[in-house]
Design a protein that fits this description.
Layout (H helix, E strand, L loop, with lengths): L3 H4 L2 E8 L5 H17 L3 E9 L11 H11 L14 H19 L3 E4 L12 E4 L5 H11 L2 E4 H12 L3 H22 L19 H34 L3 E7 L5 H9 L16 E4 L7 E5 L9 H15 L3 E7 L5 H14 L7 E6 L6 H10 L4 E2 L5 H16 L3 E8 L6 H7 E9 L2 E8 L1 H12 L1
Parallel strand pairs: 1-2, 1-4, 4-5, 6-8, 6-9, 9-10, 10-11
Antiparallel strand pairs: 2-3, 7-8, 12-14, 13-14
Bound molecules: guanosine-5'-triphosphate (GTP) and magnesium ion.
The site of guanosine-5'-triphosphate has 23 residues, from α9.
């Protein structure tokens, strides 16, 4: 009797509803967090939310809600006081003031569990907080719940860790993980958190903490060096592609970028109903399109992407920066599509891609009801509505891409002498041959190409 669902670790989501955050916004936020947790391989069995002006300093939730959370995880629901911590006095002072804030804590609070207030069938071993939490909040929550505690950034870093496939992505993720772990090491004062970095063993004269910090620093430095070497290599490869026309598929995670990439180029890139399925950029040529047109599939975006990951994955996005056309892929069936497009736009603007010509693709239109399609057309008059699953739509997109570059192409005549027929392959890569005639001098080709491509061919022919 093995129920695969029950083999997934059970998780509880914790969120504070800050002033100004509507119920709908909170629900959308939690839905995304639930998907992140699901991608991580856990199953959300309950959600604890609380209205507060800010997360409680000690353990995010107020004491009453913390007790409730403790019941869901089998923990005490109380942050033990008198723990041997450097910050203990401050924290103890805060905790003493908690009873006075209890009323405030309970104000308007609400908790829901997945099964309509019923007790979840099993105790949760993972608590995921929808806010950035400090190392001491993490520790306090861990003590009060007896469960592992992650915040949103932590969950995303873990997903990246599991999905990284290329050497570079693996190194980037390790760097981001260490950056996430390092400040937590700093405040732990040694002890149990050390193994998170996968490191240990003490040198003479160094405290555990100093040693850990040094090791993390050394490892981060080594990683940066190795990544820089890989990137130099990639830059060389990219320089070769630079002459060619490039289109980049960019957008929120799960919007359908890889699906479009597959449909457009026939490449076997991974498509999965998971967040951050793609972490590496893949570049492929559109089949049968001349001159060659390259398409790149890129890592997806998410709101509140941890800063270290943004930095890490910037290099992956350099690919997008070199494109002449950006296709913003949006999941049209997602109620949060507007915000998702906004996040994508702002991250790309941040890395300097704001000026690149772009088009919006409203994907997954097959999942949108006809009347809503009309509303979408009105809202995004310039956008293309399509489905990566409809071959006719994909063919239309391909035409659209070709048309975009057509405007900058010129027509010309080339003479390929009989002695240089070996260059015909190169000509066909760089140009579309409209007509060809043979006379005593060689092949006279009427071609359409980009000026730069034409120049390259002329240089080859002149050699
Ligand atoms: N119904 C429908 N589903 C789609 C469409 N395009 C993509 N999907 C599904 O959406 C999910 C995500 O697709 P991907 O192509 O992996 O998305 P992505 O943008 O590459 O996601 P990341 O790599 O995580 O950033 C998959 O389950 C796809 O099958 C579409 O046009 N219609
Ligand atoms: Mg993808």
């Amino acid at each position: 009797m093995s129920d695969p669902k029950s083999e997934r670790p059970a998780a509880v989501l914790v969120a504070i509803q800050l002033p100004g955050v509507t119920d709908t916004e909170l629900a959308a936020e939690l839905a995304e967090l639930r998907r992140l947790v699901h991608t991580l391989g856990a199953e959300v069995v309950a959600t604890v939310t609380q209205r507060r002006s800010s997360p409680a300093a000690a353990a995010v939730l107020g004491s009453g809600k913390l007790l409730e959370l403790g019941k869901l995880t089998g923990g005490t629901g109380v942050v033990p006081s008198g723990a041997p911590e450097p910050k203990n006095k401050v924290r103890a002072a805060r905790e003493e003031s908690e009873p006075g804030r209890r009323l405030d804590d309970e104000e308007d609070s609400e908790a829901g569990s997945e099964s309509e207030g019923e007790k979840p069938s099993r105790l949760a071993t993972l608590v995921v907080v929808d806010h950035e939490i400090t190392p001491s909040q993490t520790r306090n929550l861990e003590r009060a719940t007896g469960a592992q505690v992650l915040d949103r950034a932590g969950v995303i870093v873990e997903i990246f860790h599991r999905h990284a496939r290329s050497r570079e992505a693996k190194l980037q993720v390790e760097l981001a993980r260490l950056a996430y772990v390092a400040p937590r090491l700093r405040e732990t004062g040694g002890g149990g958190d050390r193994q998170r970095g996968g490191i240990g063993g003490k040198g003479a004269g160094e405290s555990e903490l100093e040693l850990d910090r040094r090791r993390v620093r050394d490892r981060m430095a080594a990683l940066r060096l190795e990544i820089a070497a890989i990137q130099r290599d990639q830059q060389n490869r990219r320089a070769h592609r630079r002459e060619q026309r490039r289109v980049a598929l960019v957008g929120y995670t799960n919007a359908g970028k890889s699906s479009l990439m597959r449909a457009l180029t026939g490449s076997e890139v991974l498509v999965a109903d998971k967040l951050f399925a793609t972490l590496d950029t893949t570049v492929r040529a559109l089949p049968e399109v001349r001159p060659r047109l390259l398409v790149s599939d890129t890592v997806g975006f998410i709101k509140k992407l941890p800063h270290d990951l943004v930095a890490s994955f910037r290099s992956t996005l350099d690919e997008a920066l070199e494109a002449s056309l950006l296709l913003y892929v949006v999941d049209a069936s997602d109620p949060m599509r507007r915000e998702q497009l906004e996040v994508t736009r702002s991250v790309l603007a941040e890395i300097g891609a704001g000026e690149i010509p772009s088009r919006v693709l409203l994907n997954k239109i097959d999942r949108v009801a006809p009347e809503e399609r009309e509303a979408l057309r009105a809202e995004y008059p310039e956008a293309t509505l399509l489905s990566a699953k409809a071959p006719a739509d994909v063919a239309g997109l391909c035409e659209q891409m070709v048309a975009f570059f057509e405007a900058s192409m010129v027509e010309d005549e080339l003479l390929v002498p009989y002695g240089k027929q070996n260059l015909l392959g190169a000509v066909h890569e760089e140009a579309r041959v409209l007509a060809e005639e043979y006379d005593e001098a060689g092949a006279r080709l009427r071609v359409r190409a980009h000026p730069a491509g034409l120049e390259r061919i002329r240089n080859l022919l002149a050699r």
